[in-house]
Amino acid sequence: MSNEKAASKAFKFHDYQARLASFKNWAFDDIEDSICTSVKLAEAGFFRPYPRKRPDLAECYICLKPLEGWEEQDDPWTEHKSHMPTCPLSKLRDKGIDVNNLTVEQRIKLELERGKFLLHRDYQDIKKEFEDRIPEVRSKLMRLT
């Protein structure tokens, strides 16, 4: 999936109900006293991008941080914050703001922040591709001398 398609897909997950629906048949929903439920994950800004290929993967719709290896007693907000302390969604929650009931202005600001994360991810992908080609190009240059 191209980054542009992924960005568009993630945009729909501004909606809590869309995030919740992505966790259909979540493994821990049927376990009594489980903390890591689909409801808690969706409330924490996560959606499940690849339910069939990687059923344990959840990704924040703002910071795009993918997390997997969930256990039934994991608290999604705690995990979110520990793995991505700079996430603007977590920062809003820390200020006491209901992140699932945002104003239009708050959503626009979050979308701007999400754009920064998308640009950073694209930059990292391009940088890695460039760095991966360095040995090959270096070898070709050495053969020319």
Largest sheet: 3 strands, antiparallel
CATH class: Mainly Alpha
Apparent shape: globular
Query: Any idea how many domains?
Result: 1
Order of helices and strands: HHHEEEHHH
Output the strand order for the largest sheet: 1-2-3
| CATH fold-level name | Inhibitor Of Apoptosis Protein (2mihbC-IAP-1), Chain A
Give the percentage of residues in beta strands.
under 5%
Task: Look at the structure and give the mean pLDDT.
Answer: 89
The CATH homologous superfamily is termed Inhibitor Of Apoptosis Protein (2mihbC-IAP-1), Chain A
Structural class: mainly alpha
Give the strand tally: 3
- What Rg, in angstroms, do the CA atoms define? 18 Å
Q: Note the gap between the termini.
A: 40 Å
Task: Work out the helix count.
Answer: 6
What can you tell me about this protein's structure?
The chain is mainly alpha-helical and 145 residues long. The protein has a single domain, classed as Inhibitor Of Apoptosis Protein (2mihbC-IAP-1), Chain A. 53% of the residues lie in helices and 5% in strands. The chain has 6 helices and 3 strands. The protein has a 3-stranded antiparallel sheet with strand order 1-2-3. Strand 2 and strand 3 form a beta hairpin. The radius of gyration is 18 Å and the shape is globular. The protein starts with a helix and ends with a helix. GO terms for molecular function: metal ion binding. Keywords: Metal-binding, Zinc. It comes from Dimorphilus gyrociliatus. It holds the Pfam family BIR.
